[in-house]
Amino acid sequence: MIRTQRISRRRLADILHLVVALREDFGRTVDPRRMAEALHELMGKREGGLHVLVAWEGRFPVGYLMGGFTASTVHMGLVFCIHELYVSKPYRGGATLKALEAEALRFAASKGARSMEVRLRRTQRELILLAEAMSFEPTGREVFERIIESE
Hints:
Blueprint: E1 2-7, H1 16-25, H2 32-44, E2 50-57, E3 60-72, E4 77-87, H3 94-110, E5 113-119, H4 125-133, E6 137-138, E7 143-147
Parallel strand pairs: 4-5
Antiparallel strand pairs: 1-2, 2-3, 3-4, 5-7, 6-7
């Protein structure tokens, strides 16, 4: 059974291996300590800070979604921007993704956000398909958006 929750900076070490795995999937080598320090700092910012939502299978983290809030001049309100999404290979089916998606919608709405958005280059075909599967629609050259006001 997949459960989701927002984690604090104290729990960042629980998902550090997933953050590193995402970068390794893209062929990047990262120093886990430096990555942890950077994320810890971003999560500590009061304005525009980083929020991390985690999917758990039992007591093990199997995926995460990172994002932050920003003001929107289009909607005249708050927008939750998804910066990163990762699900470990054995859990890449729909249940984990749906759980993270539902938690992101719930969390963003609880903070007063009017929409969620993700920025993708048109060459990132797999990510575009993922955004479309999560009901995001292209609203600009690199912006995919999902309105959450009425949800």
